[in-house]
Amino acid sequence: MNKKLLSLLLIGLLTVFGLMLVGCGGDDTTTDETEATEDTMTDDTATEDTTTEDTTTEDTEAAATSGDVEYTIKFAHVVAENTPKGQAAIEFARLASEKTNGRVEVEVYPNSQLYNDDEAIEALQLGTIHLAAPSFSKFTGFVKEMQVVDLPFLFESVEQSREAFAGPMGEFLNQKLADSNIMLLAAWDNGFKQLTNNRGPINTPADAENLKFRVQESDVLVSQMQAWGASAEPMAFSEVYNALEQGVIDAQENTYSNTYSQNYQDVQDYLTESNHGLIAYAVVTNPDFWNGLPEDIRTALDEAMAEATEYNSTVAGEINDENKQQLVDAGMELNEMDEEGLQAFRDASYPVWDEYSDVFGEELMTILEDYRQ
Ligand code: SIN
Predict the structure, then answer these.
(1) CA 200–ligand 1 middle distance (angstroms)
(2) Substitution candidate for ligand 1 out of 139, 140, 237 with most atoms within 8 A of CB
(3) Which of 138, 201, 259, 299 is 20 to 30 A from 131, comparing alpha carbons?
(4) What is the reported pTM?
(5) pLDDT tier for residue 266 given thresholds of 50, 70 and 90
(6) Do the Cβ atoms of 178 and 214 come closer than 8 Å?
(7) Which of 156-160, 247-251, 333-337, 369-373 has the lowest mean pLDDT?
C-alpha cells in the first residue's frame, strides 16, 4: 500500500472513531462508567451536562466560566431530577461551582444512569465516584444500624426526623459509617412512604395480607411486610416499574414524589396514605477523597452542602404535596388511613422493633425510645 493511501485510511479511521466518541457523549442514558474513572483533578472543562432541563444548570455554567475547572466531582443517585433529592443535588452542584468560582464542577448523574445504590456505595469506596446519597436503608449490607430508620412508625413528622439526624441518633450512625470508611456529609429527606397496590384500598393490616410488596434492600422492611401478613421482594429502585407492570410484584411503598416521578400511577390503581416510614438520604463521600481536597475548596463545599441541605428541607414537602395531588389527578384512588387503622398497623409492627433490638444494640435502641410512636 502506498503512503498516501495509508494516511487516508488512517484519517478515515480516526474520523469514524471521533464521531463515535461524540455520539456517546450526547446520550445521557449511556453515560459511561469509564468516564467516572477519570482522575478527579482535571484540567479540562465539563464534558457532559446531566442537568439539561433545569435552569439552575445555566447558573452553574455561568459560574463555571469565571475560572477553569480544577476538580470534577461525580455525584450519582437513582431518582429523577424533579424530586427532593434530584433538586438538592442540582442545587449543590450550582452552589459548589459558585462558591469556588468555577474551580469545582459537580457532575450529577440521576436516574441510576451510572449505578444503582449498592453499586454506588461500592464505587464511592473505590473512588470511582465521589458523592452518593442513597436512602439509609441501602446501607444495610455495609452498616446494619443504618436500617434503623426503617423501623415502622419511628417518627411522627419529618421535622422530628431532622432533629434525630442532628442529635444522638445521627451521631451514632455517623460513627458507624466512619468505622466503614464512609463519610457522612449531610442527611437529606424525601418524606414519608405511602402504599400503592392494585387490589383495593388498604385500611387495616388485613387489607395488605398476601400482597407482594417491593421493598428497598433492608431486612427491617422485609420483616415489616411479613409482620403485616404481606410478603416482601427487595429490589433495586430502577427495576420497580417493570416489576409492577409485569405483575412480578403487586404493591410497593414509597413517597409521593418517587411514586409520581416513576409513573407508578400508570400501573397501580390504589394509593394509601399511611406515613408509616421515612425515606431519608445519607449524603456520603469517601473520606480519603474529601480530606485530600485543599482546605479552601473543602470549606466552600461544606458551605454548599449546608445550603443545599436547607434547600432540600424547603422543597421536599412542597414537591410531595404537589405530587400527591398529581397522582390523584392521574386517576389513582386515594384513601387516607384513619387513626384506628393506623393503630392496627402500629400494633402489627411492634414485633419488628423487638426482632431488631439485638441487631441494633442497647445504645441505639435507648436513643430511639425518645421517638418511637
Ligand atoms: C430513593 O429515593 O433514592 C430511592 C428509594 C427506593 O429505592 O425506593
Answers:
(1) 24
(2) 237
(3) 259
(4) 0.83
(5) very high
(6) no
(7) 369-373
